[in-house]
Amino acid sequence: MFAELLLTKIFPPHLMPHVRLWRMHQPTGFLLLLWPGIISLLLASPEKTPYFWLTIFTLGAFFARSAGCIINDLWDRRLDAQVRRTQHRPLASGELSVQEGCLSLAAAGLGAFSCFITLPFAAKLACLGLVPLIVLYPLMKRITFFPQLFLGLTFNGAVPLAWIVMEQPLTWEVGLLYGGFVFWTIGYDTLYGLQDREDDQKAGAKSLPLLLGDATKTVSLSCIVVFSGILLSTIYQLKAPFPLFDMWHFDWTSWACIFGVLAFNLYRTYRLNTDHPQTLLSFFNKQGQLGAEIFFLLWLG
After folding, report:
1. What is the pLDDT of residues 119-162, one digit of tens each?
2. Domain 2-300 is in which class?
3. pTM of structure
4. What DSSP line would sit under 49-66, residue for residue?
5. Cα(31)–Cα(29) distance, integer angstroms
């Protein structure tokens, strides 16, 4: 993979296990955590681009995702060793010890804390509320068939946070947007989890693909349909001066472009061949690209 090859040129060999523990070689997860928060920043601040908060949210997403991956790998190191896709992770394979993993977690936590201290007080409280979700998420696959739902609730906490840092009220539109991004996470992560279905079953792990069986693609597609509808309606509701009566003053150009990329993503989901792991990985990566398209269309529009 190009990203891992590039990282080997930047980091010395003895640090590469930590680089892989932080998932730097797999940037899609970081992007999928990043886009909901910075898209929300643009919607919460329609008149002026909040460059400072875009920077803080980007750094925060990087460190929080890395910390979350390490926590997940510490919890799941024995379970990961039984799953083909994850058995070569540094903690599962024994390449790093638990103590080294904890030191790496401390470094990621320090980076996340450096972003945390820049937040206003109300935003700090909101972030602290997310910490238990981040810590407990790896346990969900042991106790419930809905870890993807728990991931969605955790992954999109930056949506209301954007309104808090921009000193905007938390209206029903914010809650609706948060729910829409949760549906998106459930949709793409359930499809991504199909590649682990057999190994999860052998290891005793639980997941939505195991619960849904042949209905997995239909349910995932439905979740992405709901996300697309909520995002489009929320963008209109937040950006139109008087949504019910002033349609002629709304900038339809960027909205129509976003409609186009969302519609194509629905077509891509409908046509997805769920029998091949490489196809599922490619679909997962394309969701990261979708977030980028939505963000830049909003920014440029």
Report:
1. 999 999 999 998 888 888 888 888 999 999 999 999 999 999 99
2. mainly alpha
3. 0.91
4. --HHHHHHHHHHHHHHHH
5. 5
